[in-house]
Amino acid sequence: MNLAVIGTGYVGLVAGACFAESGNDVICVDVDREKIDRLNRGEVPIFEPGLEELIENNTKHGRLAFTTDVVGAIQSSEVIFIAVGTPQDKDGSADLRYVLEVAETIGRNMNGPKIIVNKSTVPVGTAHQVREKIQGLTTFNFDVVSNPEFLKEGSALEDFMKPDRVVIGADSVEAAEVMRELYAPFVRTENPILVMDVKSAEVTKYASNAFLATKITFMNEIANLCEKVGGDVNQVRRGVGTDSRIGPNFLFPGVGYGGSCFPKDVRALMRIGQEHGAEFEIVTAVDRVNNNQKGRLIGKVLEHFGSPEAIRGKRFALWGLAFKPKTDDMREAPSLTVIEELNRLGATVVAYDPEAMENAKRMFAKTGAALEFAESNYSALDGADGLLIVTEWNEFRRPNFGRMSQLLRNPVIFDGRNLFEPAKMNRLGFRYYSIGRAAVGG
Ligand code: NAD
Fold first, then answer.
1. How far, in Å, from the CA of 329 to the mean position of ligand 1?
2. Domain ranges within the chain, ordered by starting residue
């Protein structure tokens, strides 16, 4: 099939490459000329395991191309995916500007019947808006399908190629059939393709993300309770997660969720509820609790040093910038709160992240932040008054603790991801703070 994917970000690029891998001819479009130029030079603008090889293989075989020529892409494709960003608007709702802009461009440039697929995460009723926009601009037949994306950054290829399920919201049997055909290569182990009405598909995406955000947040509150009563959240997590009705995933406590999806999708769902007179009390609380959770590590720093004044002039190592491991994405990352708060208290931060440092440099350029970047996780520790850990990269899990104590001026660790065993840290002579477990040592 000839496909166009409009919006070549984390979702569009992965979807485009995976559809090309199953034999389709795919054109990925973006308005960002620099991004397209880089892709055409063989550079991949984001870090996602396995993506570079996939893109190289499919461009080499002529199944995958990158362009800024949106009109050409629309006119040569039977199916057009909209995968542009839907960032948070000022009032918390999803900003549909880019989606509707693309719909208008499609409407103006239709040259035959087409299926337009909404892959961006959008509020209920957006497919309808897209349809209305296009309808006013063309006489050709077309269908608008909702096909929300559930991939996770860091394992996006695996998630796209072997999805737990594919959700397709379609009002026409023919369009649903084309979508089934397109996804058939990815569900050969019989995972379901769920065809439903368009509105239900739109709600499904927000319901999934808000549920996962709630699960994480619930466990974070249990962790806070454990700290107060003297329990160990890790034991509790095992006790809870082995219940097959609950399951073990998304129960790891930490410094709050971040990223380009959960925070904005939770807030968008709150707005959708308000607009339709169905106030969403649970997700409202989730958003509030998560914001507080991002400050938990700073609370521990203050507890350790005794007062805000004691932190002024100090230098802290920070391991991890990305909102989670195996990605370079820093959107709404807890590290941003940690850096801002430490700076506000007059401390300098020396950060290390295996993949996100370029993004961090761009984000903090011209902000005047007291932020330095280290060449390795160890060099970040050199002369630091303490270490904060906010991303659970595998390479941070088994470090050389002897080397760490030698480098740190002060052997204190504030671990926002519970990477180490408190008893061991105590033995090794560290003062060790973690989440939902008693502080030890020192
Ligand atoms: P992104 O910001 O990485 O990419 C969006 C791209 O769209 C950018 O490259 C931008 O330049 C481009 N764009 C904007 N307007 C355009 C236009 N008019 N024409 C062509 N290109 C245009 O965003 P993303 O993370 O890929 O997310 C895209 C959508 O998918 C969002 O709605 C998001 O909520 C959803 N989603 C994201 C993830 C994820 O993990 N990132 C997972 C599932 C769903």
1. 13
2. 2-196, 206-291, 294-433
